[in-house]
Amino acid sequence: MTDGRSQGTAPAAPSQSFRLVGGDSRCAGTLELKHQGDWRPVDGYYWTLKEAADSVRLVNGTSLCSGRLEVKTNPSNQWWSSVCEADFDQQDAEVVCRELGCGAPSVLQGALYGDVEASMWTKEFQCGGTESALLDCRSSGSDRNTCSPGKAVGLTCSEPVRLVGGDSRCAGTLELKQGDWRPVSDYGWTLKEADAVCRDLDCGSAVSVEQREESSERSVLWIMPDCVQSGSALRECATSGSSNSILNLTCSGKPISDIIYDIIYDSNVSSMFLPPSQ
What we know:
The protein is an alpha+beta fold. The chain has helices spanning 49-52, 90-99, 191-200, 225-229, 256-273, and strands at residues 18-22, 29-35, 38-41, 56-60, 66-71, 81-82, 105-110, 125-126, 138-139, 153-157, 161-165, 171-178, 180-183, 206-223, 238-251. The strands form 4 sheets. Strands 4, 5, 6, 7 and 10 form a 5-stranded antiparallel sheet that branches. The chain is globular and about 55 Å long. The termini are far apart.
């Protein structure tokens, strides 16, 4: 008798204790864990994208969306391999950013987030740019054995965050992209947490944080304030849920460095026209 959950899914390797089933590819579907010989679905209540990322990662960066690219090409071991800049292009970067749930690639540069001394390198990737995962892309037949110093791929993807429905791009309902754009529910946010969003959007500092109550519940993302305060990116702190309480933010609209400059400049200009102190 065939287990209905495993139909259309390739048999897992003997050493593999997890799998994705029922999706459009081997990189999508319901997560199942093998426990005492049986495959069981995993409860995703406390899961975020940080736990879900498995075959690609960006290390030594400031968030999950920036760093030196590493790839785990064999799911049966824990070996992470670096990627040589000569084997990676903009279309490959688009796939990696999409797989990590980030926005479009903004910077692609060798050794941007440090180099590696290890001689372990991946194959050359040949993505079309539309694949959902890097390991879905075609690749060269053999691993690269060497790579010039300073040529390990460094990648920065944009953070998938926006404010919508306000008077400017620096005000409105906070939305985060996880597959599609979803609003963030109010969960005790203060100006301290909102500052992180305003900085990501290059909108200066937070001016106000408001809670908007809607008539019915909708699909939202919960982002815990303590996770944001720890320095993690918003998308690393997000969990799915439903609520009728939506978070609205207003930012100053200017980077804080520009505001300080304006204050100093205006003070210097004003002093030129003031009478000397008696």
